UniProtKB/TrEMBL annotation:
<comment type="similarity">
    <text>Belongs to the Gfo/Idh/MocA family. Glycosyl hydrolase 109 subfamily.</text>
</comment>
<dbReference type="InterPro" id="IPR049303">
    <property type="entry name" value="Glyco_hydro_109_C"/>
</dbReference>
<feature type="domain" description="Glycosyl hydrolase 109 C-terminal">
    <location>
        <begin position="139"/>
        <end position="307"/>
    </location>
</feature>
<dbReference type="Pfam" id="PF21252">
    <property type="entry name" value="Glyco_hydro_109_C"/>
</dbReference>
<dbReference type="InterPro" id="IPR050463">
    <property type="entry name" value="Gfo/Idh/MocA_oxidrdct_glycsds"/>
</dbReference>
<dbReference type="InterPro" id="IPR036291">
    <property type="entry name" value="NAD(P)-bd_dom_sf"/>
</dbReference>
<dbReference type="GO" id="GO:0008456">
    <property type="term" value="F:alpha-N-acetylgalactosaminidase activity"/>
</dbReference>
<keyword id="KW-0520">NAD</keyword>
<dbReference type="Pfam" id="PF01408">
    <property type="entry name" value="GFO_IDH_MocA"/>
</dbReference>
<keyword id="KW-0378">Hydrolase</keyword>
<keyword id="KW-0326">Glycosidase</keyword>
<protein>
    <submittedName>
        <fullName>Oxidoreductase, NAD-binding domain protein</fullName>
        <ecNumber>3.2.1.49</ecNumber>
    </submittedName>
</protein>
<dbReference type="InterPro" id="IPR000683">
    <property type="entry name" value="Gfo/Idh/MocA-like_OxRdtase_N"/>
</dbReference>
<feature type="domain" description="Gfo/Idh/MocA-like oxidoreductase N-terminal">
    <location>
        <begin position="6"/>
        <end position="125"/>
    </location>
</feature>
<dbReference type="GO" id="GO:0000166">
    <property type="term" value="F:nucleotide binding"/>
</dbReference>
Length: 400
C-alpha cells in the first residue's frame, strides 16, 4: 500500500459513474474526495454509492473550477464530454493537479498544441486513459512484436466497430454528447481505442511518428433508418440530416515506413470488434478470428489448412503472455472491460505514488487525438492527404 491519492472525478455520466461505482472504487490507495457534474442528480447518485461502500461522502460540485481549488486534491479523473477534456485538463495542470483524462478525439489542432504547451510549462503529470493499450491480447501482441516473433512490422489495422445507434439516437433523453457530434461532424471521431495499441507496437513518439493521413467516409444512412423504425414519434430527429458517415476509413503513413488503417463503424448493425491486426515479415495477429499466424508454424504453408487454425490464440498464451497480465491473472482480474480499466487506473496511481513518467503521456494524447481533427479535414477535401504534426518537436527521434 502506497501513499493515498486524493482524487476528484469530473463528469458522472454513463462512463464516469460506472468507473467510480464499479471499478476504481476497489482501489485501496485512492480516496474519492470530490465529484463534479453539471447535473445534481448524478452527483448525488455517485456520492450515495460511495457512502454505501463505506467510503467518506465526497464534496460535490457543478463547476470543476471550484473543485480545483481544494488544496488537498492530488489528481482529477476527467470523464466529461469530448469537447471539454482538453479545457479541463489544462485548468487542472495549471492548478497543480495530476490528470487522468478519458479518451475522445480533438476538435482542432490548436487544442492539441495547447495541451502540450501547458504540460511543458507546468510539468504536471497527465495520462491519457486509453484502456485498450492494456488489453490482454494487445499486450501479448506487443510483447511478440518486441521480441521479434512477428518480424519487421509492416502494416497494422484497428477499428471502433460498435453498433451505437441506440446510444446516439436517444442522446437527448440520456443527456449524452455523441448525438451532436453525429449531426454536425463527419470524421474518425473515436480513433484512440484502435490507434493506442498500434502506436505502442510501432513505437510512435518513441523512435517513430505518424507523418500523414487520408480519410474517406461513406454516406450517412444508418441512423436515419434506425430512427425511422425506433423513434417514429421524434419528427425533429427524423428530419435531421446527419453529417457523420456510417463507415470511415483512415490510412496513416509512418516515418519508419509502416501503414495503419483505422475504421470507424458505429451506425450500422454489426458485432463489436476493434479489429486489431498486426502484420510483420514473420507473422501476424488477427483479432477478428482470434488467430496468430507465424511463418513455419503448423498450417503456415497451405492457406486452406491455415483456416483450420483460426481461433488458435490460446495456444500462444503460455509462451507469450505479457508479464503484467500473467501477474494480473494470478492476483485476480478486476472489473471494467475485461480488466483493462482497473489495470490502467492502477498504473496511473502507481506512477503518481512513485513519481514515474506516465506510460501514455501528453505527446501520445495530442497525437492520437489529433487524428479526429485531421480526418475531418481530409474528408472535407475529398480524401486528400493531410500532414500530421510532430507534437514532440523532434524529440521522438531519441525518446525511449
Amino acid at each position: 500500500m502506497g501513499k493515498k491519492v486524493k482524487l476528484g472525478v469530473i463528469g458522472l455520466g454513463q462512463r464516469g459513474a460506472d468507473l467510480v461505482k464499479n471499478v476504481y472504487s476497489e482501489h485501496p490507495d485512492v480516496d474519492f474526495i470530490a465529484l463534479c457534474d453539471v447535473y445534481t442528480d448524478r452527483q448525488k447518485e455517485v456520492a450515495d454509492a460511495l457512502v454505501e461502500m463505506g467510503r467518506e461522502r465526497p464534496q460535490t460540485f457543478s463547476d470543476y473550477r471550484e473543485m480545483l481549488l481544494i488544496k488537498e486534491l492530488d489528481a482529477v479523473l476527467i470523464c466529461a464530454s469530448w469537447d471539454t477534456h482538453s479545457e479541463i485538463a489544462m485548468a487542472a495542470m495549471r492548478a497543480g493537479k495530476a490528470v487522468a483524462s478519458e479518451v475522445g478525439g480533438a476538435y482542432t489542432l490548436s487544442e492539441c498544441w495547447k495541451l502540450v504547451d501547458c504540460y511543458e510549462e507546468t510539468k504536471t503529470p497527465i495520462m491519457f486513459m486509453e484502456n485498450c493499450v492494456y488489453g490482454r491480447d494487445e499486450m501479448m501482441v506487443y510483447r511478440m512484436a518486441e521480441e521479434g516473433v512477428l518480424g519487421e512490422i509492416v502494416h497494422c489495422e484497428g477499428g471502433y466497430k460498435h453498433d451505437l445507434r441506440e446510444e446516439i439516437s436517444f442522446g437527448k433523453e440520456n443527456r449524452h454528447y455523441r448525438l451532436d457530434n453525429y449531426i454536425h461532424r463527419n470524421t474518425e471521431n473515436y480513433p484512440t481505442h484502435e490507434l493506442g495499441p498500434i502506436a505502442k507496437v510501432l513505437h510512435i513518439n518513441r523512435g517513430n511518428r505518424m507523418l500523414s493521413l487520408c480519410s474517406m467516409a461513406s454516406k450517412a444512412a444508418g441512423l436515419r433508418e434506425y430512427i425511422k423504425e425506433k423513434k417514429p414519434e421524434d419528427k425533429a430527429l427524423q428530419n435531421t440530416v446527419f453529417q457523420q458517415g456510417d463507415v470511415v476509413n483512415t490510412i496513416i503513413k509512418c516515418s519508419n515506413g509502416e501503414s495503419i488503417l483505422l475504421t470507424l463503424d458505429t451506425t450500422l448493425p454489426r458485432a463489436y470488434s476493434r479489429g486489431f491486426t498486426v502484420q510483420g515479415t514473420k507473422g501476424m495477429y488477427m483479432e477478428d478470428n482470434a488467430s496468430i499466424f507465424l511463418d513455419g508454424d503448423e498450417g503456415a504453408k497451405d492457406h486452406f489448412e491455415w483456416k483450420k487454425q483460426w481461433g488458435n490464440v490460446e495456444r500462444f498464451r503460455e509462451k507469450y503472455e505479457h508479464p503484467v497480465w500473467r501477474d494480473y491473472l494470478k492476483a485476480g482480474v478486476k472489473k471494467g472491460h475485461g480488466g483493462m480499466d482497473y489495470l490502467i487506473f492502477s498504473d496511473f496511481v502507481r506512477c503518481l505514488q512513485e513519481d514515474l513518467p506516465m506510460p501514455i503521456d501528453v505527446y501520445d494524447m495530442a497525437s492520437w487525438m489529433s487524428i479526429t481533427a485531421l480526418a475531418e479535414e481530409s474528408i472535407a477535401l475529398g480524401g486528400q492527404p493531410v500532414a500530421i504534426p510532430d507534437f514532440t518537436n523532434g524529440k521522438w527521434i531519441k525518446r525511449t
